[in-house]
Amino acid sequence: MEVTNTIGRRKAAVARLFMKEGEGKIIINKRNYTEYFPDPLLHYVVEQPLKELDTLGKYDIKVNLKGGGIKGQAEALRLAIARALVIIDPENKAALKLKGFMTRDPRVVERKKPGRPKARKRFQFSKR
What we know:
Ribosomal Protein S5, domain 2, single chain
């Protein structure tokens, strides 16, 4: 039984994934993914690449997730799952790339600039 390791990132979230053949359990930080992500929309995000290839329930997935918020973590996990599915079968890449699951979203928070309250916001102007 071969174990596939991949990493997915989104904003500040990092997902380290270990995938092997099994009965479809997804464990995140020693908790079931439906318990870890309370929102059904995030369950959908995590399951997207598996549903696209009709492999939901065929692989056991163990994930170490850290950083960011829950939305960024779910999207980082989606990228990691898509990358693992391509390692298992390279023919899957075209279908996943077409849906945009293979692309790492590069958008991150802009840094705060000196002399400003936030990245672009300015302090209130006072004429007198």
